């Protein structure tokens, strides 16, 4: 979420010449790991395992991660950890309920100093003699820096520079940067599980790297105690036992002037079923973001925060209660929100494997517990949440942005995004190859916002008015009422995302058209490098005799359902048109509900349920709703 965080972004660095970086390591990435392991007397399997958990061995074109980490070893170099929000105040009210009084601005918490976990590149430079620029930009130098750090950590706890990987458990745990014992243990356990099982892949810049399995490892966990880390605060957390998780409660208090913050007490799922899990990014660092959610005067809240470096989780709100997180009260009342440390763009463009893994374990745990389907219609980004009214569509958020790897995430969830159907199926699932799909964006550099972003892996495809590369982008009249869609990293108006399902509107050569916001939208989908896969299933079309069908951003009950004393919440169509001849994929039914909760005392809270039947559809980049009586449901094979 773009919110008022008391931080400043990590300095944006010049783009790296990948060709020059590869020339510096003529024998490839694998040779760089071997050489660094030998030089600093670190077992190569340990070096490879740590790097995989941090970066999956990728170089990321020299751009920093979402918490200031560079290169395959994620050497951190935070330029600053204080200041003001660099995006400005968002127009979105995270509650998404216009029946409430407006929230006053809240003061941001005082920013902490730079923690050691965000300054490892500085220490690596001291240990290796490499310049900071080389440690950021040259993968081989970066790997040397990581190996030097591991050896330094090993010595600091009195452990031997042993050939036995199991002796390096404490140093690996320290590499996580965690200050909690449980978080450090989780990171080390994941590294050693990776070493035991082995991994192999081609990196983002074309290097083939292999970690051969090392079965039968005997981890010497006693070294962990040498780190002197604080014990966890796990009492009361709703997390799987396989992740590092602590309880840091969100603020809940009455405020001057009759207001309160910063979430609502409820009794879910007894009162309302939880149907969605919403993936956000913080637009900031973990520490300051947690400080914000602890403040009852802050205008937003969420259930969980996840740290980038080690995947550590802080739970703030019980699943039964409602966070002010998605900007749509209907979605808020029926969802759980996860905030991931990081930034949508501005050079901070990649997420660590450690955070992906803990997030996926948490989401799978929550989804199984609450019956949330593991698909992209219910595990959604904040950018997939619709506006509630025509006036709120334009200000809705864009996170986690195009650089979140949805395909990898769903594989970790145990629900990989497989094709379903034949090559001429009436529906498709967007699924470009994340590693090779590098569409053009601008807006990643705050100092030069019109400059092109570096060519980075992304989960989206551009949608055009005609089947040709130079055709204009399709329009989104909600985001741009009088203007064109943008190639900005912050504008999803003409983008479809991995895992989203759309009805096919046409095919021509290497191009496929889908129905999108009331228009045909074409994307490049060559058979030699497909960006979508077949996905047959249920679709909806306007009921015969109807020229157009209204689409909604919330599934609120009809007026007759509201009891005395509960103001009617209008069911207002959005500005889009769903016309006869168009087809959209069906995600399933949506309950007609409104959770009335505008008081600090939850005794007066109640759920209003209606008889109107709604259906959820994939209408554009965001999910939307139609009334069941307005459409006909058919199967598209």
From TrEMBL:
Keyword terms, alphabetized: Cell wall biogenesis/degradation, Hydrolase, Signal
Domain N-acetylmuramoyl-L-alanine amidase residue range list: 263-401
Signal peptide (residue range): 1-23
CDD domains for the chain: PGRP (cd06583)
Catalytic function, reaction form: Hydrolyzes the link between N-acetylmuramoyl residues and L-amino acid residues in certain cell-wall glycopeptides
Compositional bias (Low complexity): 102-115
Residue segments, region Disordered: 64-115
Keyword Transmembrane in annotation: no
Compositionally skewed regions (Basic and acidic residues) per UniProt: 86-100
UniProt entry tagged with the keyword Cell wall biogenesis/degradation: yes
Listed InterPro entries: Amidase/PGRP_sf (IPR036505), Amidase_domain (IPR002502), Lysozyme-like_dom_sf (IPR023346), NAMLAA_amidase_2 (IPR051206)
E.C. code: 3.5.1.28
Protein name: N-acetylmuramoyl-L-alanine amidase
């Amino acid at each position: 979420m773009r919110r008022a965080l008391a931080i400043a972004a990590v300095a944006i660095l010049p783009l790296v010449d990948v060709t020059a970086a590869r020339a510096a390591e003529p024998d490839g990435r694998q040779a760089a790991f071997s050489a660094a392991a030998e030089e600093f007397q670190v077992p190569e399997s340990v070096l490879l395992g740590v790097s995989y958990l941090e970066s999956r061995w990728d170089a990321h074109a020299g751009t920093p991660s979402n918490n200031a980490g560079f290169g395959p070893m994620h050497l951190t170099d935070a330029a600053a950890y204080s200041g003001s929000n660099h995006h400005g105040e968002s127009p979105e009210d995270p509650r998404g309920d216009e029946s409430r009084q407006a929230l006053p601005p809240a003061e941001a918490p005082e920013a902490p100093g730079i923690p050691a976990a965000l300054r490892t590149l500085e220490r690596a430079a001291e240990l290796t003699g490499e310049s900071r620029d080389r440690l950021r930009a040259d993968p081989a130098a970066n790997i040397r820096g990581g190996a030097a750090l591991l050896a330094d950590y090993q010595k600091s706890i009195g452990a031997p520079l042993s050939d036995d990987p199991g002796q390096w458990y404490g140093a690996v745990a320290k590499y996580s940067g965690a200050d909690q014992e449980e978080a450090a243990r989780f990171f080390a356990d994941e590294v050693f599980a990776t070493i035991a099982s082995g991994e192999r892949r081609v990196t983002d810049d074309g290097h083939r790297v292999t970690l051969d399995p090392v079965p039968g490892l005997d981890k010497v966990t006693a070294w962990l105690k040498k780190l002197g880390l604080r014990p966890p605060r796990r009492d009361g957390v709703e997390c799987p036992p396989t992740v590092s998780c602590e309880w840091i409660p969100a603020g809940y208090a009455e405020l001057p002037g009759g207001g309160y913050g910063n979430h609502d007490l409820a009794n879910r799922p007894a009162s309302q079923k939880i149907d969605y899990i919403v993936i956000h990014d913080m637009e900031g660092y973990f520490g300051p973001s947690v400080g914000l959610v602890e403040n009852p005067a802050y205008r937003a809240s969420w259930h969980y925060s996840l740290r980038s470096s080690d995947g550590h989780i802080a739970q703030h709100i019980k699943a039964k209660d409602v966070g002010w997180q998605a900007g749509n009260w209907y979605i808020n009342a029926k969802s759980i929100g996860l905030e991931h440390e990081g930034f949508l763009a501005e050079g901070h463009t990649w997420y660590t494997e450690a955070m992906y893994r803990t997030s996926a374990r948490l989401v799978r745990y929550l989804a199984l517990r609450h019956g949330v389907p593991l698909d992209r219609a219910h595990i959604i980004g904040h950018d997939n949440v619709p506006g509630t009214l025509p006036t709120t569509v334009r200000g809705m958020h864009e996170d986690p942005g195009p650089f979140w790897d949805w395909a990898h995430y769903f594989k970790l969830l145990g629900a990989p995004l497989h094709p379903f159907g034949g090559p001429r199926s009436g529906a498709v699932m967007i699924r470009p190859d994340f590693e090779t799909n590098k569409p053009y964006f601008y807006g990643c550099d705050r100092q030069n916002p019109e400059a092109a972003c570096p060519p980075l892996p992304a989960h989206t495809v551009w949608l055009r008015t005609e089947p040709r590369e130079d055709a204009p982008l399709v329009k989104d009249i909600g985001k741009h009422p009088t203007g064109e869609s943008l190639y900005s990293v912050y504008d999803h108006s003409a983008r479809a995302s991995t895992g989203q399902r759309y009805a096919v509107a046409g095919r021509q050569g290497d191009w496929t058209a889908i129905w999108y916001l009331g228009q045909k939208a074409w994307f490049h989908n060559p058979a030699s490098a497909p960006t979508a896969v077949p996905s047959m299933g249920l679709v909806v079309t306007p009921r015969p005799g109807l020229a157009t069908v209204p689409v909604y951003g919330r599934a609120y009950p009809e007026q007759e359902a509201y009891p005395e004393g509960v103001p009617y919440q209008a069911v207002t169509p959005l500005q889009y048109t769903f016309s006869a001849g168009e087809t959209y994929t069906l995600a399933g039914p949506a309950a007609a509900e409104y959770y009335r909760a505008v008081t600090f005392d939850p005794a007066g809270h109640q759920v209003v349920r209606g008889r109107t039947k709604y259906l959820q559809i994939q209408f554009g980049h965001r999910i939307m709703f139609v009334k069941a009586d307005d459409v006909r449901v058919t199967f598209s094979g």
